[in-house]
Specification:
The structure holds 2 protein chains of 2 kinds.
Chain A (H helix, E strand, L loop, with lengths): L1 E3 L5 E3 L3 H15 L1 H22 L4 H4 L1 H33 L4 H35 L3 E16 L7 E4 L12 E3 L4 E8 L4 E5 L6 E6 L5 E6 L5 E4 L12 E4 L11 E10 L5 E7 L8 E12 L9 H8 L71 H7 L22 H4 L30 H4 L3
Antiparallel strand pairs in A: 1-2, 3-4, 3-14, 4-7, 5-6, 5-14, 6-7, 8-9, 8-11, 9-10, 10-13, 11-12, 12-13
Chain B lengths: L13 E2 L2 H17 L2 H4 L4 H13 L2 H18 L6 H19 L5 H26 L8 H22 L4 E2 L1
Antiparallel strand pairs in B: 1-2
The chains are: A alpha+beta, B mainly alpha.
Chain lengths: 459, 170
């Protein structure tokens, strides 16, 4: 500010305010752009720091602003996917039908083979249920899934997420499991009204409880920075074979136990006494199109409720040498796959059909020699030991022992003559009470039609 | 055509209509999110759009705000904390517009080099922020960075040629 001195001249003296003004005008004017840059960067770093500090509530704090952007982008993605699907459908449904007839024939063959496999699996499942009942396990069931289509991704290398076209309106909630028919994909991270964000299992922040199928070693599945999947927390003194299947362990409370995760691709020594196990995901995470969101799962005590099929009965169906039932024999509902053709082979036949043939009329038989003679209540009286002893299983089914070794792949090894089998008296055929959990001896079901002992010996 | 300008009088400053200003970045984000992951990890369309707008406007303030907005929007599509892309693209927007004042960036060769350089700058800033501030596990790969930079640079030459049609001289 100019100050008039005694001699009448203006004397410029700068006050503090003037200095500030000078600073503002010179520095800010000269470096205005740089100052704005620093300011904008500072604000963003501040915002970033706040999010990192509140990492636990990050999703909630930034939800609104994310909704705006996602809401602006996803309609276009929906339109794009819709257009792609329309074009693809026109092509595949009208123009590209070459070879469909041959493919149809192949599929029918596969169905026949799978029916055979289904019977085997039904038996195993029934046995597993019985064992679970015995030890009072809790089972998790996938009771409802919602199919959704992948409509986009984060577009970023570091954030491995995808968007699906189903959201809160379709019943999807946070932390629901997402999978394909091949294996697990990830979990729902954020839910919007009509879309959801799915965190893939190869994201760095993802974690899934997993176990190795054969060795039953448990670990934690995590994504790596370069998009791979690794199984952590497996001690380095464990033997993990390459190629072993990895399943979900259920420990994360998101994925039910037993869903396929992938296979072991590479095993190396890691840090801190743990192995570094690389996993190849079962689902193709880079080419996801349709996924299933597990919206409802039930956990209940293992029971045999609704399973009125005995393993012995199923076994009996599979055996080509089972003698024909008397006229009173009735098929058990739910046993035979739809359209299965009963095996109309006489008991004396010695030519066992090939079990793995193509579309052959050797589909699992419906007729069950023991079906009508034993009430469903007897399903609970299978001995615990019988689950892991084929010989005992055969013992339970009078007809089972008559199988030719080459008749079924799973029973290819006929058992040694079992002394228990000879003790199967008609008296023991009385059904046990339904609540009986004590291992019971054999439950022969049709002493009258039991094949002669000579046939039960292994070939 | 001179590569460098001798005075500001030679600098052409462009502006864009509001639909283009909003629509092009949104379209870039949308396409980026719709790309198959194998492509998305190499191409960064929002970055190219940021560079283009910043260089065309030749205003560092406009450039840095363009970069900040596009980067923050890109952050919101991901699951990581918001601001990582924002910071990286703010720096790129500022740098590109500052460079646009000094260089002839309408030459295809210059555009290629500028894009390649800014892709690496963007990657470096992103890596630093993610690694140092957010503590995300990152692996830096020169070969991958350069490969992606070259891919983006090639794409930018074609993309900028198309976007040039939307320029309006001030």
């Amino acid at each position: 500010m100019p100050v008039v001195s005694d001699d009448g001249h203006d004397n410029w003296q700068l006050t503090t305010g003037d200095w500030q003004l000078f600073f503002m005008e010179s520095v800010l004017g000269r470096y205005r752009n740089l100052v704005i840059l620093v300011g904008v960067l500072f604000l963003q770093v501040l915002g970033l720091a706040m999010q990192v500090k509140r990492a636990g509530n990050d999703a909630e704090n930034t939800r609104l602003i994310r909704i705006w952007v996602v809401g602006a982008i996803t309609p276009f993605e929906r339109i794009l996917v819709w257009g792609q699907n329309g074009t693809s459908n026109i092509w595949h449904n009208y123009f590209y039908l070459r070879g469909v007839r041959a493919e149809n024939r192949e599929l029918k063959d596969q169905i026949e083979q799978m029916r055979l496999e289904q019977v085997r699996l039904s038996e195993d499942a029934a046995q597993a249920r019985r064992l679970q009942t015995l030890v009072a396990f809790k089972e998790q069931f996938i009771s409802r899934t919602v199919a959704a289509q992948v409509i986009g991704s984060s577009g970023s290398d570091l954030s491995r997420i995808v968007y699906i076209d189903k959201g809160e309106n379709a019943g999807i909630r946070r932390d629901m499991a997402v999978m394909t028919s091949d294996g697990i994909v990830g979990k729902v991270l954020l839910v919007y009204p009509s879309v959801s964000q799915v965190l893939l299992i190869n994201d760095q922040s993802s974690g899934v409880g997993a176990l190795l199928e054969k060795t039953r070693l448990q670990g934690v599945l995590r994504g790596t920075a370069n998009g791979e999947v690794a199984l952590e927390r497996v001690m380095s003194d464990e033997q993990v074979p390459v190629g072993e299947t990895v399943l979900t362990s259920g420990g994360d409370q998101i994925f039910p136990k037993g869903l396929p995760v992938g296979t072991v691709m590479k095993v190396a020594n890691g840090k801190d006494l743990f192995l570094n196990i690389k996993i190849k995901p079962a689902a193709n995470l880079s080419k996801l199109e349709e996924v299933l969101v597990l919206v409802e799962k039930q956990e209940r005590q293992a029971t045999e409720e609704g399973v009125h099929v005995r393993a012995a009965d199923i076994l009996a169906q599979r055996l080509p040498s089972v003698p024909d039932k008397p006229a009173t024999a009735t098929p058990i509902p739910g046993v035979a796959p739809a359209g299965a053709k009963p095996i109309a082979k006489p008991a004396s036949t010695s030519t066992a059909p090939k079990p793995t043939g193509t579309a052959s009329p050797t589909a699992p038989a419906v007729k069950n020699p023991s079906a009508s003679s034993v009430p469903a209540a007897s399903t609970t009286v299978q001995p615990a030991k019988s689950a892991d002893r084929p010989s005992t299983r055969q013992k339970n089914s009078g007809a089972a022992s008559s199988v030719a070794p080459e008749s079924t792949p799973t029973e290819a090894k006929p058992t040694e003559p079992n002394p228990d089998a000879s003790q199967s008296k008609p008296a023991s055929a009385q059904p046990k009470p339904a609540d009986s959990t004590t291992p019971a001896p054999a439950a022969p079901t049709q002493p009258a039609t039991q094949p002669p002992p000579a046939e039960s010996s292994p070939q | 055509m001179p590569i460098t300008y001798t005075s500001n009088a030679q600098v052409d400053v462009y502006r864009f209509s509001i639909p283009v200003t909003i629509g092009v970045p949104l379209l870039a984000l949308f396409v980026q999110a719709s790309l198959p992951r194998s492509f998305a990890v190499y191409f960064d369309l929002p970055l190219l759009v940021t560079i283009f707008f910043a260089m065309a406007r030749r205003s560092p303030v406009a450039g840095l705000f363009t970069g900040a907005v596009i980067g923050l929007a890109q952050d919101m599509l991901g699951s990581n904390p918001i601001g990582i892309y924002g910071i990286a693209k703010t720096v790129v927007g500022y740098g590109a517009s500052s460079l646009g004042v000094k260089l002839d960036v309408e030459n295809a060769g210059a555009r290629f080099l500028v894009t390649l350089g800014f892709y690496l700058v963007h990657s470096a800033v992103y890596f630093s922020v993610a690694h140092l501030l957010v503590n995300m596990t990152q692996t830096w790969s020169w070969s991958r960075g350069i490969l992606a930079g070259v891919a983006n640079a090639f794409l930018s030459v074609a993309l900028f040629f198309v976007l040039d049609k939307f320029k309006q001289r001030t």
